Amino acid sequence: MATRDELAAVTAERYARAGRGERRRILDEFTAVTGFHRRHATRLLRSGLPPRAGGPRPGQRVYDDAVREALVVLWEASDRVCGKRLQPLVPVLVEAMERHGHLQLAPEVRGSLLAMSAATMDRALRQARDGAAGRRRRRMAPSAAVRRSVPVRTFSDWDDPAPGYVEADLVAHSGPTAKGSFVQTLVLTDIATGWTECAPLLVREQGRLVEVLGELRKRMPFALLGFDTDNDGMFMNETVRDYCAAAGVEFTRCRPYRKNDQAWVEQKNGAVVRRIVGYRRYEGVEAAAALAQFYGAVQLFVNFFQPSFKLAEKAREGARVRKRYHPPATPYQRLVADPRSGEEVRLRVAALHAMLDPVGLLRTIRTMQKRLVEIADWPVAGERAKPTAPNLEAFLSGLRTAWQEGEVRPTARPKEKAERLRRRPDPFATVTALLQGWFAAEPWRTSRELLERLQAEQSGGFPAKQLQTLQRRLKAWRRDEAHRLVFGTVATEEEAKGDAARGSGL
């Protein structure tokens, strides 16, 4: 009808200015398009469109205010159930409330309530329900409309793309808890070559994401052609979508809750970011700056000196899946060997490769890992020592025996546990010498007997809840006495810890 009204408004102007013969042709066209009767079309084009009233179409109210008020009372008496549950309950509820004198309904009101449908009850109770619960109509998330406008690309839709189509993901460095603000890493992985770029995000903000993406595009050896992400709100927004549209980058997304659609970048999240950076919590400007400097060396070492496998084909034979991989190669080797890479790209990456020293890059990575550990484990700058990089000859000689030390990546080592010190004052500080004298005279006495003797001599100062403290103290004295009887000396702190571990079966 709206289209017909627009057509009638435009045709009426032409009809008013046209002559007799032209009016006949205009009328024939108008009736053929709209399907109106010729006389109705003539009156419509001569008089113009009648004004249409806005809003809902007026109609006769079937249920008046008395019925609605009685329905609200029944709804409250039913503990505010929905219309589908309230409709079969109304006859039972009306009869029970009238029997106990809680409700007196006129015959016409009673008949209207019994004839009302469940959907009509919900519509009649909408105002009362919204006012009672204070609810507002749920609005669709801002990213929902953007998500619908971004096409979906699955794992099997890539079909060997040219270098430049990347998958993107965010890795959170939140540590054991996701509370508060922490640094995140934006990871880009090229599908054709496996080329990986990483950059830290200090804050979770879409404008900052676009800025970091622009910097990564300058660092990549090839042009960015495709940008495939998950359904995170950091990617599904107008800022990122408009940026890709302005830059001529194809913007796609994976299916929700289908991580296999982004298998390439998910593999790099673990093999590159988690393996090299670890699982500690990084927050603040200092951590973000250290990660940015760290990723500068990481991307050179990974892309030029870290071979990786790439799936060639996969075939299913019954319940068994057979996979065949291409020979291992670095992203640099795949980029140079790809015929779709330009000559300028090959010359530029080849010149960069000729200048790189893998041992020097590895030394820089180890030094930066130590710095990241210091920042994460000791947030206060004054409490940590600045890590220094060893000279290249010393680092190279240490590679021959590094395997003997076990794990060499500082970020993979667990955080050192701080020594637990006493947090409360010692309740037996004033009587320690007295208790040690009693123990030396009668070592067979139990902790309870010593505590009862202490309570008898010094009433009111040592409650019974301090028995466990005295038991631990007596256990240490007995261990020292046993060590002295066997070895002639008192056990040191390290020996005492070893004896405790052996005694517990560790």
Description:
With 506 residues, the chain is of the alpha/beta class. Helix content is 52%, strand content 8%. The chain contains 21 helices and 7 strands. The protein has helices spanning 2-17, 20-34, 38-47, 65-77, 83-99, 107-115, 118-124, 126-133, 142-149, 206-219, 238-247, 263-277, 285-305, 331-337, 343-355, 358-377, 392-398, 432-441, 447-457, 467-487, 493-503; strands spanning 165-172, 184-190, 196-201, 226-229, 250-253, 311-317, 320-325. A 5-stranded mixed β-sheet has the order 3-2-1-4-5, sandwiched between helices. It has a two-stranded antiparallel sheet with strand order 6-7. The model is unreliable at 500-506 (pLDDT under 50).
How are the SSEs placed, and which strands pair?
Elements: H1 2-17, H2 20-34, H3 38-47, H4 65-77, H5 83-99, H6 107-115, H7 118-124, H8 126-133, H9 142-149, E1 165-172, E2 184-190, E3 196-201, H10 206-219, E4 226-229, H11 238-247, E5 250-253, H12 263-277, H13 285-305, E6 311-317, E7 320-325, H14 331-337, H15 343-355, H16 358-377, H17 392-398, H18 432-441, H19 447-457, H20 467-487, H21 493-503
Parallel strand pairs: 1-4, 4-5
Antiparallel strand pairs: 1-2, 2-3, 6-7
Helix pairs in contact: 1-2, 1-3, 4-6, 5-7, 13-16
